[in-house]
Amino acid sequence: MSEEPSREEREKRDKEARAQEKVEQDALPYKWNQTIQDLDISVPIPGNMKSRDLDVVLTKTKLKVAIKGQTPLIEGDLTKPIHVDESTWTLESTATGKEVSIHLDKINKMEWWDSVVSGAPKIDTSKIQPENSKLSDLDGETRTMVEKMMYDQRQKEMGLPTSEDQKKADMLEQFKKQHPEMDFSKAKIG
Description:
Blueprint: H1 7-26, E1 31-34, E2 38-45, E3 54-58, E4 62-67, E5 74-77, E6 82-94, E7 97-106, H2 140-157, H3 163-178
Antiparallel strand pairs: 1-2, 2-7, 3-4, 4-5, 6-7
């Protein structure tokens, strides 16, 4: 039987994995970061380049960034699909030259990407610390679900019925009213 690794061993492994991940990500010809809703990529290029010198292709499932006539800096199938109409790229000047800035709008706004394109080194998405978000940032259905969960949590903390418990109690009361001939005095409910 194998033993669980000690806390120190787990921390050491995590640290080594993060260091390896950093080396792999730093070796990429681009930098990227993401929120749960979108992903931004910056690709450094020489300062003398103009947009007409670039070959940038954004589709729902593919990405290509290249200087015309050269090997692409990024090319491949996106890890997940994007909204093409909401995704953009621009050429921007930086202190060290220029960069192609790409903004990708994720279709599934409830999951993290482990890489930009298939075949690129992956990150450990379980280690992502999401930014705090406001309820107003959520879509209607998700917001309703989160508000219900928060309400139920508060009710439980105060020893009061949750929304589900209240719904059941209301249904029982309605049933009692519809069937006054029934005796519920000895019924065990709960």
